[in-house]
């Protein structure tokens, strides 16, 4: 996302750390061999991996506050800024849709199915699609609402979503519940998206579905409030950090308390999850800000800053590359065919490590490989803005 100059180095670092972690967990050598912290929780609960996406959306909120504050102060520019935000959001959505349909097209080619079937079963929502939708909505709210109204909107979103999910009987089920296939969000996804266009791993619900986009907006608004606070000129750095730590710890505690009745759950993006993840993100940025921007310890930041300044670019390329390389089919010794990238992993990694370590080393190699590209772009001051 576009930001005003000078950039907040700690924010670039935190964003880069988050995106690098996202690429690490999204690209294991084998999905059947993953260390527990690098997997999502089965349903309720929260692993380190479950924090990555909300951290990124929260950071998007902080970035909005930094990028659009000058426009917010000038109502005459609101319409122009909103149009730009819509264009950026739609671009993000289309990039996500492209990855989804590209994968389907490859599947159609390799399985001899038709392109029509690819479009009939393509997933309509996803990570980039959610980022785009949340960015548009949150940008408009930021431009049109006061800080106090944004805070109230966040509270209303969390309360309304909690009420919808825990008190509204699910049609066809007859009672409210939070189970995978029978909760209200899953019912809405099946009814509007249809099972043909939901997450391929479930077919009956989508972790980036329609209703759960509402609390995802709440995560972004949380970040906006933090960004507004961080931009204040009338507050010294020590006070900023102290209050950010306090707000973060408070949100974590509230999230854990709410978890007793409305479980922390990434797939449902529950209200307790918004508070818990947002609180941890606040603590993380406060720590980074104090060490990097206030104390001036910057030498160690480069590897993640290079990820942070081209975050969307590297996320898109990391999703595209395996789809492209696996278009190339190679023949194995037993006569069967497999994708080039898959075969490379089988030859260069699995013979030398245990299955779970081979999977991890592959993911680390993936992150390091993209670091080389991003470092080159960073040194050449190439920043691709979406």
Core attributes:
single chain, 386 residues, mainly alpha, 2 domains, two-stranded antiparallel ribbon, 14 helices, 2 strands, 65% helix, disordered N terminus
Task: Give a brief rundown of this model.
By secondary structure, the protein is mainly alpha-helical.
Give the rounded overall mean pLDDT.
92
State the domain count. Answer: 2
Question: Which structural class matches the secondary elements?
Answer: mainly alpha
End-to-end separation in angstroms reads 6 Å
Largest sheet: 2 strands, antiparallel
Keywords: Acyltransferase, Membrane, Transferase, Transmembrane, Transmembrane helix
GO molecular function, one term: acyltransferase activity
Transmembrane segments: 12-31, 51-69, 90-110, 122-143, 150-170, 209-229, 241-261, 273-292, 304-325, 359-378
3D architecture notes:
One of its GO terms (molecular function) is acyltransferase activity. Keywords: Acyltransferase, Membrane, Transferase, Transmembrane, Transmembrane helix. The chain is an all-alpha fold. The protein folds into two domains: 126 residues, no CATH class; 252 residues, no CATH class. Helix content is 65%, strand content 2%. A two-stranded antiparallel sheet has the order 1-2. Helix 1 packs across helix 11 and helix 3 runs antiparallel to helix 5. The radius of gyration is 21 Å and the shape is globular. 42% of the residues are buried.
Q: How is the secondary structure organized here?
A:
Layout (H helix, E strand, L loop, with lengths): L8 H18 L25 H21 L5 H34 L3 H7 L5 H18 L2 H21 L16 H9 L20 H18 L6 H23 L11 H24 L7 H7 L2 H15 L3 E3 L5 E3 H9 L6 H25 L7
Antiparallel strand pairs: 1-2
